[in-house]
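Form 12-C: Joint structure prediction
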Amino acid sequence: MAKKPTTLPGKLFAALGSFWLAIALLVNLFLLTWLGTLEQVEKGIHAVQGEYFESWLVLAKAGPIKLLLPGGYVTMGLFVVNLFVGGLVRIRKTKATIGIIIAHVGIALMMAGGLVEHMYSSYGRVVLYEGDEADQFQEYAGWEVAIWNADAVGSIEEFLIPQSDFADLGGSASRTFQRAELPFDIILKRFMVNSELEEAVGVGIPSNPVVDGHFLVGKPKDKEEERNFAGVYATIVAEGGKKVEDSLLWGIARNPWVFEAGGKRWAMVLRNATHTMPFSLKLEKFIKDDHPGMAMARAYSSDVIRTDPDGTEHKLRIQMNEPLRKDGLIIYQASYGPADGKPGDPYTVLAVSRNPSDRIPWISVGVITLGLMWTFIARLLGFLAKQQRKAVGQAGKSGEKARGKSAA
Amino acid sequence: MAVTLPIKTQGAPLAFGAAARSARALVLSPSLLLLPLAVMGGLAGCSKPGDTVAITSTRLATRPSHTPREGLTLMERAYGKEAVARERMRSGGNRPGLPPSAAGQNPLLYDVPEGWEELPRAQFRDINLRLVRDPSAEMVLTFLANDGGGLVPNIDRWRGQVGLGPMTDADIAALTTRTVFGREATYVELLGSYQGMSGPRIDDGGLFGAIFSQGGGTLFVKMTGSREVLEAERESFHSFLDSLAVNMNMGAPAAQPAQGGAGARTSPLEWGAIAGWTEEASTSQFREVTFRRPTAEGGSIEMYVSTAMGNALDNITRWAGQIGQPPLDEAALAKLERVDMLGRSGYVYEATGALSGMGGGPGKPGQAILAALVESGGQIVTVKMTGPAAEVEAARSDFMTLVGSLRARQSPR
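Section 2 - Result
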């Protein structure tokens, strides 16, 4: 065992790597998971995920009592420190602990994978009717304002304003956005995370500016993230500060706002954050196999054609538990369209996941398994050797006794 | 400051290399401890942007995520042009929140599919399209002010054009639907040796068609041509069906002299939605709108708004006759309940009895009429509800709500 530290940094170092800290963190993680799961019923998964796990502190609801607990950032941050200090640095490094160290390396790898996933992954969906082709997917939550030349042909360069740049623009606050390639500035204001479009007739004084007889009304955020339709007001200001036009952008809008500036037509839309895939998918056929005599799906799958950048086509089937993995994307069969979907029923909904650490859990579990197997086998071999030594010892003692008797 | 940590290994030396041996003399800087905190700080580190921000994110797309379209109103941009037009038709052009469409000249709004060209309208061809690459392929819309003989006979007629026999009960039960004008239309795809009313026979051809009935009128839409064309143009046909909408700035398609009937038109009146009732845009010459609600017995009860020439006494007397009640005279008329209707004092007539239809005949007992009527410049506007007496009584407040919601259209289109 390591020598007991006497200095303050040494004591702190020892405390950070202690077994008791690990136990306390595990208990806290259990409480976060348990209470968060209970609260998810009321608040929805995205809200609880943010409140309990993507936070420093959380006021967790345990029935009538509220508990102030360290949030996911603090818990996992300390876990990393604890693992590093206690499981890799302070641990006795002997033959007997090799397996434990390997297992700790596996856990550290899993944690690193989680951090990479948290920081760099994106999730979304792509909806395809039969015959439709798409090479982009949209996130379930999170918004962006996209601007592009409405007359552009071929490759279209979109200029993007992420939600983090305008999420704080409630009330009268506004912010100006500029880009050298754009012959105008964009002023965004009155962002609403959930909104509804209303006619400005018979409603008294509208709560927001009226555009084309309508205005956006802010609504409480829905616990189901997909049911929130953000809204924001936008003003276009040409060079020289002359206002060109203003309008409102609503997250559910089918068509973009089209305006003229600098002699060109521009399109602007508020949409869920959108990502380009390095290939396109075309839905050839959606297949749904119902339970006998029922309209309930037993299984469903999508026959798609994946077209790579070089133009080569691959016919594939995406179905439950058999996702398409390609270029860092994992595409799952997630859902399908209702009977009244259009145009051209039916449609498929594919969940798209971009997770650079997708394979890390597999690898880390392998490493942890190796470490544990090493430990268990070493213990088993040690035990067997001990038993053998014991047996040999006993045989020796019996022989001596026998010899003693015969001598007597 | 650097801290040398008192790390000591016990037992046998490690067998796996220099890295482990060097751990014996591991020197840690306190800054190493700050690493996880720095990571955590990075996770939360998002400062508030300034008043002016440069757009730094870009994305190259091969196609726009949303299709730019010219000349859309805000509502059309929000919900889609076709959806707004369909909603206008569904609600009789009167749903709050839907702005008037731009002025147009066609009685129907529709999109000509790519690769198709439009020909002049002709008898029984209210919309007349032809495929450019194969002129034998056609897309035709016909509107009739009546049921055109009925759904099944018309589909059987289409089946006959491709050499198929009449439908069996199983065929009828298996008929599919598509949404046209926001409502269900019967949809068929028939393949065989196609011979239309005119033109050459197409041996390996067929017909895709949709039939939609409402308010007494019937809309027939069909695409004919070779099998290859039909298969290739299926999506075009569907998109054409999806694009169909009534141009509220014009009369209905059935207003064409060739058909001589009456169809959907812009009403001079406006009214509010009635909770629990389905609103049907009327294509009848006399009805402005019909509201319908199912009854507990599986039937339905309806109330409707209509306009006509005439006076109150004659019309209320006619209603009395329909329900088996004695005719009214001026004195009886003066005693009727009154109601505010279109800014005037209207009459309310309510009676129960055996109700007969417009054509006379034996009446259906246990029925009721609840009607309101107002006279204005030689015209009358009536709101009338008929049905089982108990149902009519139960719906009285909804009826009065409809009467109270009536307004003259502010900007005739």
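Section 3 - Comments
The CA atoms of residues 118 and 129 of chain B lie 5 Å apart. Chain B has two domains: 74-255, 269-408.
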